[in-house]
Give the backbone structure.
Amino acid sequence: MHDLGSSGGTYVNGTRLVARSECRLEHGDLMEIRPWVFRIEDPAKQASPTEPAVRLAREFDTGDERVEEAIVRSPGELAQSQVLQLLEASEHMALATNEHEIGRAAVGAVGAATGFANTALIRPGASDGTIEVLASTGDVVDPSGHARVSWSLLKRSRERPYVLRGDPHAGATLVASIASLNIQQAICVPIDAGGTFLGWLYLDNRGGGRIDAHEHETTGFAAAIARMAGLALSSVARQRMQHRFDLEQREMFSGTVRALIATIDAKDPYTRGHSDRVSSFATLLARYADLGEEMIERARMCGLVHDIGKIGVPEEVLRKPSKLTEEEFAKIREHPGTGYRILKDIPQMRELLPGVLEHHERWDGRGYPGGLSGEGISLLGRMVCVADCFDAMTSARFYRPAREVGEVLEEIERCLGTHFDPKLGRVFLEIPRAELEAQIGPPVAPDA
């Protein structure tokens, strides 16, 4: 879905999209273009047995006087025991990472504080006339996974709390399912967040169980739990939406990086796959140096983009089979700076810029473009330098064949403390040869 800048905004699961942004819709999403709300359905996805979803019978609305709007008491009037349950439920909901954890916290608290035997947190199902029980206690869900609740109460309670009281066998006006469930008393409170209806908090006593004489106070407590559940459900939905936005941005960014790398590979068939291999070798080095997951990921990404600046190097220079002139080599030496300028305004690349700019610096200060030396060179720059040189020497070029792995490792050892960081270089030499050889690219023939 793409928002075209609508004045009223476009909402997915209660989260407003940024104007002109895109969002991939998934099964169960609520898309809101006010005043309309649309539920996205994927017929291939069925409800899990542990997440009951049943179609409710359309009962005849008799206007039964036993079902009435409830009075919601102020949270300040709650009993001390209820306040403690409220605080505990709030803590559990704040830590919840999904709807089912929120549901368990809500029904556990309302059951413990009110004494109602059957409690549930319910939300509308994927299809009209169905519900999904996120969590329940007592007899709300039968052994086959079907929900057994009062539809009369649910259909009234989308906007305000309602209660049901009385002997289910005392009057013909009571709907059949209430009588069949032998419901003595029930309370249903809507759950919403920011004006978006999210479901119900449902309580009942049935089968001759106790009757709560303080049902309006109980309703006030249930309403407080429902408000917290609404906020928690909305928060989880926002987090999920943000995760999806972040994932889509990463996928888009990754596609852009791949397109740039493919452009470089197209310029020089002998270096095709070079960036991927440098990324693999740099990742291995960071892992064996025990630098932590964050630096391992930076090494991987920096290896991929370290040669982006070669986009600005003429093909005839990159593909020249003989020795480069001083003028031609000067063009090659420009690519770290060119890469830096290409990437410097991309937020995701800021941590990688030192490695892009400094991967041709040498430990002894005789590298380029800045003539940096020792630990004055960034850690990323020193790691990618080793990975880049290893791949260059084990890959074929126009002017020479690939060198044997053992010979290249000896060359790296010989250049520790001059070309390469001696500590990082030693770690690289300790990587099992089989792991290095698995990443080395096959011989590449130049294009005709």
